[in-house]
Amino acid sequence: MTPGARTQAAIELLDQIVAAAAEGGAAADTLVGRYFATRRYAGSKDRRAVRELVYRAVRRCGERPPSGRAAMLAVAGEDGDVAAGFDGSPHGPSPIGADERAAKAGLAPRWLLDLLRASGLDGDELHALIERAPLDLRVNRLRAEPGEVAARLEGARAIEGLPDALRLSAGTDVASLAGLVEVQDAGSQAVTLATLARPGGRVVDLCAGGGGKTLALAAMMANDGAILACDTDRGRLRRLMPRAEGAGITIVETRLLNPNRELELLPEWRDAADLVLVDAPCSGTGTWRRNPEARWRLSPERLERLVATQAHLLRIAAELVLPGGALVYVVCSLLDGEGRGQVQTFLAAHPGWAADRPKIGFGRPHCLGLRLTPAHDRTDGFFVARLKRPC
Q: Of 44, 162, 215, 331, which residue is least crowded by CB atoms under 10 Å?
């Protein structure tokens, strides 16, 4: 592909990403994969170059841009090589018009920046939210040792404080290690440690999704005990068991729940779980390094719905924890309304429950929990709190 053709491909992809963000469509990574699946003529260097252009433009635009071309013009305004790609060639974009406006640069929509600043973030903390993330792995000790896996991966580095974690350059191919490793951000691994899951325990992962934290819990438990992995999304939950089987995990059972009727399908787990993990749906403000277009998907109305869902899930979880047991609440958000505010509201409504701030070697105290940030911890952003039910 010529430089112009690469630029035009990036513009076409950005148009799809902008539309998907506005309409709640597929994620950017999915759209990029689909795009090149139908364009076999594009070699690996072309795909890599186009992807770099796309994500450079996405990170550049804090607000959702009016079009893919406007987003790419923002990049062209600061890079002469990209501007040269607007050359009017047969497969390239038309030349830049004298009156064309590029999308505005920024970190995030103004209303979101205001909420982040009100939650105690500013300066370097904000800029780090959209930096490019490395690739982190969790080694499955049921199948392999970290040193053994690291020897097979050029440039793999251990992560201090996480004995099962390895860090690699973004884009490293780890497909050949299926079952031996799971792709999981170091922050996600760290907050899972807050569960203090132990062999023989009875655990509910109430928002299991595809099972990343479920598998990490099973490894912490040495595949001994019982984990009930729940979700209301059939498609995501269906992916969990094949992953568990590939990892050699046998203690997981899945259960599809009906939204707003979850407890009806959990009768035998009421007052019975040593631990309930609520890895709640959230704004994802802590994951912008990996999903920068997520800034364009969020609205005040959607955030309000997410906060209501989080409070609902906490109420359900409280019904499942046995006396003396623990509820661990996690969000990959840095907004106080989804983190500290939820914990404060929960404790006010549940007399006798108490916060037991986790000690995981990552993050900083934030209200009654811990907050991990990209700038401080070199991980995705998280809030985690551990709540104990009275005996």
A: 44
Q: Is there a contact between 45 and 116 (Cβ–Cβ < 8 Å)?
A: no
Specify the pLDDT at position 12.
96
d(CA 174, CA 172): 6
Q: Where are the alpha helices (DSSP H) in 156-205?
A: 186-193
- This prediction's pTM: 0.94
Helix (H, G, I), strand (E, B) or coil at 345: helix
| Pairwise CA distance, residues 24 & 33, whole Å | 18
3-state secondary structure of 50: helix
Q: CATH fold of 186-388, please? A: Rossmann fold (3.40.50)
- Which DSSP string do the residues of 115-140 spell out, in sequence order? HHHHTT--THHHHGGGSPP-EEEEE-
* Amino acid (1-letter code) at residue 295: R
Name the residue ranges covered by the structural domains of the chain: 3-106, 186-388
What does the alpha-carbon distance between residue 94 and residue 151 come to, in Å, rounded to a whole number? 48
pLDDT higher than 90, residue 292: yes
The residue assigned the tokens 């429950």 is: 353
Place of tokens 């998280």: 382
Q: Active-site residue numbers?
A: 332
Beta bridge partners of 328: 277, 386
Distance from C-alpha of 64 to C-alpha of 21, rounded to nearest angstrom: 8
In sequence order, what are the beta bridge partners of 230? Answer: 255
Please state, in angstroms and rounded to a whole number, the distance separating the CA atoms of residues 321 and 12: 50
Looking at residue 166, the DSSP 8-state letter turns out to be E
Per-residue model confidence (pLDDT) at position 353: 98
Pairwise CA distance, residues 344 & 347, whole Å:
5
How does residue 366 score in pLDDT terms, banded at 50, 70 and 90? very high
